[in-house]
Each structure stands twice: as C-alpha cells, then as structure tokens.
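yo

u said u wanted the structure for the complex thing, so here. seqs first:
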Amino acid sequence: MPKRVDHEERRARIAEALWRIACARGLDGASLRDVAAEAGISLGQLQHYFASKDEMLVFALEHISDLAARRVGERLGALGGEPSPRDVLLGSVREMLPLDDRSRTGHLVQIAYFVRAVHDERLRGHAKEGVPGLRAFFAGQVREGQLRGEVAGDRDPEAEAALLIALVDGLASYAVLDVWTAEEALGLVSGHLDRLFGVR
Amino acid sequence: MPKRVDHEERRARIAEALWRIACARGLDGASLRDVAAEAGISLGQLQHYFASKDEMLVFALEHISDLAARRVGERLGALGGEPSPRDVLLGSVREMLPLDDRSRTGHLVQIAYFVRAVHDERLRGHAKEGVPGLRAFFAGQVREGQLRGEVAGDRDPEAEAALLIALVDGLASYAVLDVWTAEEALGLVSGHLDRLFGVR
DNA sequence: GCTATAGCAATACAAACGACTTGCGAAATG
DNA sequence: CATTTCGCAAGTCGTTTGTATTGCTATAGC
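structre next:
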C-alpha cells in the first residue's frame, strides 16, 4: 500500500480555505480553482478529496456547524455547575453575535449558506435542523427561570425562545452590514433579557 | 428620428423578470440570457436597455425598494387619520413579513440582494440606507405610545425600535426557510408588541 | 423621398466554470 | 525486489458566462 494521509484533516483544511473566500467574496464567488489556490493546493488535489463541488459545500457547512456547536458547548460548560438561566441565555446569545473577527467570519459564511439554502433543498434541511433543538434549549432555560421565580409565569417559554432566536439572528444580520455594532446588538438583547427576567 | 419607446417602462419589465428568477433560483443563478428569456425578449434587446449586468441589478434593487416603500405607505394611509401607535407598528410589521406569495417573492429578492450587499460596497449602501429612517419612524411611534400612556416611560424608544426591526427581520428570514409560518411569526411579534404596550 | 438614427436581432468571442481523464511518482505490502 | 495502489499534477472537454460587434428595419425629420 502507498502512503496514507488523513483525509478528514485535508478536507477540513480545504473547508477553511472555502470559508475565507466565502467571507471575502461570497459563496458563489468561490470556484474550485479559487479554493484550491487559497488552500495552497492544485485543482487536481482538491478534486481528489471532493468528487464534486456540491460535496465540498456540504462538508464545509457541516464542519462549521460542528465547530460552532462545540464553541457554544465550551462557553456554557465554563459557566460552572448550576448557572442561572439568564447567564446561560446571554452566554449562548453572545456566541451567536459577530463580536470578534472569527465569529464575524463564521457569520458571513452562515449567511452565504443561508441564501443558498433558500433555493437548495438539501442545504435547507441542514440549515433548518438546528433550530428546533436550539429553541427547545432556550425554552427549557425560560422554564427554569419561571421555576426560580425570575420569569413571569404567564410567559410562553416556546414563544420566548423563538423570539430570542429570531431577535439575535436579525441583530446579527444587521451587525455584519455595519448598521450597528455587535456590542450594541449585545446591549439590545441584554435589555430584552432584562425585561424577560423581571429586572425593571 | 426613428420610433421612441418608454425606456423606464421596459426597464421595469426586465427588473420584474429578474425578480421572478431571483426568487426561484437566486440572484447568482440569473444570467442575462435567463432574464431576457423570462422577460420574453432577446438578449440583444436586454442589452439595449442595460449596458451591463451590474446596471440591471442596481436598477432592479432600487425599483423594488420603491415599490415596497409605497406598499407600506398605502397600508399606513389606510389606517385613517389618528391611528394608535400599536396599530401603526403592527401594520408596518405585517408588511415586512412574507404573508402572501407576492410578499414572499419580495423577501426572496431582498435576501438575494442582502447577501450580495455583504460583499458589494455599492449595494451595501442601498441596503443600509433604509434602516435609520425606519428606526426613527418606529421610535416615534413608541414615543407616541408613551405619551398616550400605553408604553412604560422607562422604555428607550430607539432601543425598542431597533429590537422590533431586528426581530421582524429574523422572524421573516426563518419564515422563508419554512422553520415557522409567516402567520406564526406575526403572532410572535404581536405578542412582543402586547408586552411593549402594557397589555399583560 | 432621402437620410439619419433608435430599436433590436444575431452572432461572435474570450474568459471561466465544473467535471473528467491520463499519467507518473512514491511508498507500503507481499 | 516486484507489484499494487494511493496521492497528486496537468491537461482537456463541453458549457455557460458577460460583453462586444455587426447589420438590418422602421420611422421621424428635412
């Protein structure tokens, strides 16, 4: 047998090159040749790891979702054993806003995929699948807040969760357009959470 | 002189053909030939009215913004002389959600432009310019609500306006992905407005 | 009625695209 | 040491892209 290389590691490297291009010029502006050049490899080598462009796009999307999920997990894990629901929600939200360059890149990539997902059935599945889980998680935190008496009992946890997701997403979208900064966006969500958690 | 045709009317027709394609397949999937075919004209004729593809895209964006602004204006005008701030806000929001097919098409087009705006300086200007005006308008309505005693005095009108814009935008984005329906989205914003306007 | 010109069709063209094929070197196995 | 198979480079293919060019037709003005 000839030499073996770590396929997954190579594919990850290529995916990261794709993100850099998608961030700078958009997903549709990323040709296979561009990605190969950005990754510092030949077109032939890229095609050795991805049989088609579509395969590359799907892999890159799954890869970035994994990384984002892991980042949120780490942040929440750092909160300690018994964190307050408000801190959990604010920590999650903080990870969903383009507060630093890396996160901003992630957002630009996510937006690039979002537009494609609108017209591409397969990608739409990927883009949608994370929402119910996130919504359930947020709703659980709201419910926990109600148990602790920090959230009014007449609030619908499922509705509040959806509101929070949509709100953060909208704030983040305008933040990447420089309509307002990510810090201002964070302040706005924080105010929203203040209201939800009875601090007046 | 030879015969003369109404250039603006032809350009508007071409722009509408572009929207139909952008709605179905995205902006990047719309070639000049596709647009010409959709408009029922030849490529040569299309080029007669738009010297370059970029010129066509910019015109189509400005045209759809004009139409959307006029729709909102009509809806608010139909509210009568002294409408309540809550009704004004809900009416505006209703126009910003993809509740019918025409509105959904408008949203898909807007999304297509949004992604392009992230990477295109000129389009970004167009995409951003409408927000401050809308925010000021919403903030004015919140302030009016405070004067009428319907909104708590410690709410920051500017912040509430930004929250509402971002919230509606996020809800609308997920609505076009079919994560939830536009009707559910409307119900969620309505609940948000209930809270803002002291109905508990 | 001649002419200038707007309107428009048809075609050409270079560039770039994704996909595919071929071929060679290297290395681990037998 | 031979052989097999992976890793990869280079080139080619047909298609599609935006733009440019050419030329015909009809009409308004002189």
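Residues 1-5, 41-45, 47-48 of chain A lie near DNA strand D (CB under 10 Å from a C1'). The mean pLDDT of chain A is 92.
cya
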